[in-house]
């Protein structure tokens, strides 16, 4: 099993953290892992994306031109990466700020209203964990106990008190994900 993922959005949405947690979770399951971030010079508001590969076999290159899964968090990322999802692949997105919805018919499409659900929790920083929970519900490539270990590993110790809130957000995302389209043909 090899899963090649792109997570893309604005800086400040937790794109890189989400990828790092997935990567650590894969390591906890004795998988081969690649985590390759890409971001502009802006701290927040600029574009950011990360490719994550989790595999049972050695990864030959972290550089990808197409993906099994695209997790899309803004319109620029939708415009750039929708076409790069492999036929039969998965695209999951937060519709907040998405003007042009995906048009492909040969992929599975899901939505998660992460921004809206994070507002309900009262903490916008849970947005990425809500999206991660939605993705893991649709494609459980790593076990939840390893996601929690990944959270511990990726969060600085001074933020470990937030792990229960992040766990709640992940579970909320798993409950709130919506199937928009199953691919045909």
Describe this structure in words.
This protein has 185 residues and is an alpha/beta fold. The chain has one domain (2-181): 3-Layer(aba) Sandwich (Pyruvate-ferredoxin Oxidoreductase, domain 3). Helix content is 36%, strand content 26%. It has helices spanning 15-28, 75-81, 114-121, 127-138, 144-154, 163-176; strands spanning 2-10, 32-39, 47-55, 67-72, 85-93, 108-111, 178-181. The chain has a 7-stranded mixed beta sheet with strand order 2-3-1-4-5-6-7, sandwiched between helices. Helix 2 (75-81) links the parallel strand 4 and strand 5. Helix 1 (15-28) packs across helix 5, helix 3 (114-121) packs across helix 4 and helix 4 (127-138) packs across helix 6 (163-176). The radius of gyration is 15 Å and the shape is globular. It starts with a strand and ends with a strand.
């Amino acid at each position: 099993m090899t899963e090649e993922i792109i997570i893309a959005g604005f800086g400040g949405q937790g794109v890189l953290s989400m990828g790092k947690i997935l990567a650590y979770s894969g390591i906890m399951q004795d998988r081969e892992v690649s985590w390759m971030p890409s971001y502009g010079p802006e701290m927040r508001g600029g574009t950011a994306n990360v490719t994550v590969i989790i595999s049972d076999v050695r990864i030959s290159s972290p550089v990808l031109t197409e993906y099994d899964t695209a997790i899309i968090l803004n319109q620029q990322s939708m415009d750039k990466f929708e076409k790069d999802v492999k036929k039969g692949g998965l695209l999951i997105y937060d519709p907040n700020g998405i003007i042009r919805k995906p048009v492909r018919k040969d992929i599975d499409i899901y939505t998660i209203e992460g921004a809206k659900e994070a507002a309900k929790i009262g903490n916008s920083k849970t947005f990425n964990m809500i999206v991660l929970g939605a993705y893991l519900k649709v494609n459980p490539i790593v076990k939840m106990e390893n996601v929690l270990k990944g959270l511990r590993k990726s969060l600085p110790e001074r933020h470990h008190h937030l792990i229960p809130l992040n766990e709640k957000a992940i579970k909320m995302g798993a409950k709130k994900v919506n199937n928009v389209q199953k691919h045909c043909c």
